[in-house]
Specification:
The complex is a heterodimer. By secondary structure, chain A is mainly alpha-helical. Chain A is built from 13 helices and 1 strand. Chain A has one domain. The relative contact order of chain A is 0.13. Classes of the chains: A mainly alpha, B alpha+beta. Chains A and B meet through helix 1, strand 1, helix 3 and helix 7 of A and strand 1, helix 1, strand 3, helix 2 and strand 5 of B.
Chain lengths: 294, 428
Amino acid sequence: MANAAMVKLDEVHKNSEKWDLIIGPRRNLFDLRLRDLWHSRDLILLFVRRDFVSVYKQTILGPLWYLIQPLLTTIIFTVIFGNIAKLPTDGLPSFLFYMSGTVIWTYFASCLTKTSETFVSNANLFGKVYFPRLAVPVSILISNLIAFTIQFAFFLAFMAYFVLRGTPLHPNWWILLTPVLLLMMAGLGLGFGIIVSSLTTKYRDLRFLVQFGVQLLMYVTPVIYPTSALPHRYQALLQFNPMSPVVETFRYAYLGAGTVNVLQLVFSFGLMLVVIIIGAVIFNRVEATFMDTV
Amino acid sequence: MNPVVIYVENVSKAYRLGQIGSGTLTNDLEAWWAKVRSKPNPLLKIGKEDHGNRDGEILWALRDVSFTVEQGGVLGIIGRNGAGKSTLLKILSRVTAPTRGQVKIKGRIASLLEVGTGFHPELTGRENIYLNGAILGMKRTEIDRKFDEILDFSEVEQFIDTPVKRYSSGMYVRLAFAVAAHLDPEILVVDEVLAVGDAEFQRKCLGKMGDVAQQGRTVLFVSHNISAILRLTQEAIVLEKGRLALRASSREAVDYYLSAGNASEGERIWEEHEVPISAAPFRPIALRLRDKKGKVVETIRSVEPFAVEVEYNLSSPLTGLRIGLYLNSARGDQVLTTFDTDDGARFEKYTSRPAGHYVSRCEFPKDFLNDGRYILGINASSYRVRRYFMDEQALSFNVNTSGAPGRQWSEPRPGVLRPRLEWQIEAK
């Protein structure tokens, strides 16, 4: 019987035609199977839909929460940092200043925290069936982008209100950079998020690190204060935070106050690419065998 | 000869025993620092023994497994718990990668490792059909096209716009299987889906699988249900401790599996290393078959009563524990399932059992089983809480019917029972 089997295998070797799929121990580090990802775009959209529908089921206010969250945060920031601590806001109305910061920061922060949970919170699903794992973080970016759009429209409405009341705001051509800024935030969130999610399959410590790390990161990003308010030596440090120029540029584009540093933007963009590549490589490696460790 | 569509080539899979790393960064750093100073790892347990397919701290779940499946073939995969069946399926369905070797596949492959994967309780049946279908690899248009068919198969039309968290478990399973059954893959991998659902639905699922096979698709079928294996597959492989032990016709493979796998000296004793850590605090010690006189035997007589006893330890008190026995014929027919706390009074008395050493003994009446070979399985669980331990093929034994009713005729008697029934013959 053993012989018969050998002969069979030999035949297979001989007519080694095209195989649709080869499952091997380790694949090329840079083989991200983006084509698989593209083929599962229906799945990505259904994940997005699931996230939306399921989060607000059995809530009274439903999608209104998308507006309540930034509104309350902005009010609290305005009261505490603007009225009590009296932090400068580059001459902008403090409400708009904090709201722009909050809305932008929320997008980055939620991309990062949610993607960082990819493996751990989907372990059950990933353990049962194969689909391109990147579909999960990508769907998270998209759902967050939708949330961001709603919140951003809300912000624009407030902006319009302030303009009508005669507050001088100076939106300018930097607005055209908005898609690039969004891409950078999504990229940074995704990159760091998938690095963390890959490492949390082994080290659960990182989950806690991310939770408060993102909060701490907010304080070294010009969300609640403008870069110009910092002493010079701290400004230099801030440059290493890839999110700083994104937030500053955003604010400058829409409100017309603050600073735009092109060199810093380019640096952030480059850093984003590096983080994404590192993230993708680690993710790719972990994806193959993470079920054995979770 | 049909073309080969699955080619498993020297596939091995190793698992590191115990935790991978220690789970926290600080402990790993500590271990690494100890290694740097060439001190022994302070976290390593000492005195670990090697057993069977273990190799130091490495467990080889699969070792050099090679086989091919031709298009349209239906291959059964059988093996005891821990023989590597699930690992093989996980590799085939790309949930995990092999350590060595590779698998080549032609055509779309879909696996039903567990139905209902990715169902979201808050979403409606309709939404879940789409989501689950997409997770299993269907395109949206494809689901649109098959939607009515899926709905029809699932028998839950009325509740299709209700969140599935309100479904009964039966409805849930039916809907889930309905989606999976309409995947139309060229290769279908099925694992134990039939363990769920009522008998009627199981028949329907088996029928659907039979259809799939007849349409020239390839099916890999893993099951403990030997009668299903015999019914659905012509050929089967037997896995033993991670190795491919045999590939033969299903009947031959089943015979091999039944005779090689389980203890047949009337007694099955579990060694420490055979019991998964997850079984704690339940620790099975032995399963024994005793004849009328209390002797441990491999063959019992149909005309005499016999007893089956389960000996076990509890390392801590348990609430709601029940010890179950499954009695199946070697052909795969289920004869009965019984639990030690089936009786109402006993159920009350043993709601909780303190830690200690126990024997649960079940007496079977005389004139009960027909001749042939039977398989005993055991199960220790707390209903709806947890299953501690299960071995569906723990012990096999023979029944001898000499002296049983009807033995004056030498013809074989179909059926698993051979009771002595009261007949009245009246001349009218």
